[in-house]
Amino acid sequence: MKSIVIAIDGPAASGKGTLARRLAGAFNLPYLDTGLLYRAVARRVLDHGADPADAEAATEQARTLNRVDLERDDLRTKEVDLAASAVASIAPVRAALLDFQRDFAQVSGAVLDGRDIGTIVFPKADVKLFITASLDVRAERRFAERKAQGVATTLEAVRADLAARDEADRTRAAAPLRPARDAHRLDTSTLDADHAFAAAAALVNQALSKG
């Protein structure tokens, strides 16, 4: 397998992260969860006692981000969820993280998932997938995750959080969430993990065979 870049975009809890990791293993490629970059930046901002909406503070942390920051075990809390959404809307933060993402795939290719991989980070990616699912299905998935983690919440609260994040992702000025014009769309609403992977792998193989 030659070095290729597979760009996977989609809203929160659509299943894109699970798919990305499995595709990386199947096609022997490195994997980067780009959402983790924004979570790590948000965590650093919070650690410094700054406001995640403060563009100057968030950009400073983005510019000094390193791979060790991605290994922290406190990047998936509700506090970081909210802070990450704030820092991700800041254009200079997204610009500061572009080189990090592109450098990651420079040598060996990669599978990257996020919100703007196929549109901004790798507009010439070998394969682009846009993974989606209905809001209700995504809320049920995220609620199950939170419950398994021992987080006290309700399905209604999780649904409201996802709806708010969807709106923020779609309407932000910097790299809004949208499918690339040449992305293959996959709705996972009625698919379990194995069927979703099979469908995604078929789309990747189809795209590669044409390329």
Helix and strand topology:
Elements: E1 5-9, H1 16-26, E2 31-33, H2 34-47, H3 55-63, H4 78-88, H5 91-104, E3 110-114, H6 117-121, E4 127-132, H7 135-148, H8 155-171, E5 184-187, H9 193-210
Parallel strand pairs: 1-3, 1-4, 2-3, 4-5
Subcellular location: Cytoplasm
Pfam families: Cytidylate_kin
Protein name: Cytidylate kinase
Structure at a glance:
GO terms for molecular function: kinase activity. The chain is 54% helix and 11% strand. The protein is α/β, with parallel strands linked by helices.
Structure description:
- The chain is an alpha/beta fold.
- Helix content is 54%, strand content 11%.
- It has helices at 16-26, 34-47, 55-63, 78-88, 91-104, 117-121, 135-148, 155-171, 193-210; strands at 5-9, 31-33, 110-114, 127-132, 184-187.
- Helix 1 (16-26) packs across helix 9, helix 3 packs parallel to helix 5 and helix 7 (135-148) packs across helix 8 (155-171).
- The two termini are 13 Å apart.
- The model has no long low-confidence stretch (mean pLDDT 94).
- InterPro entries: Cytidylate_kin, Cytidylate_kinase_dom, P-loop_NTPase.
- It is found in: Cytoplasm.
- It holds the Pfam family Cytidylate_kin.
- GO terms for molecular function: kinase activity.
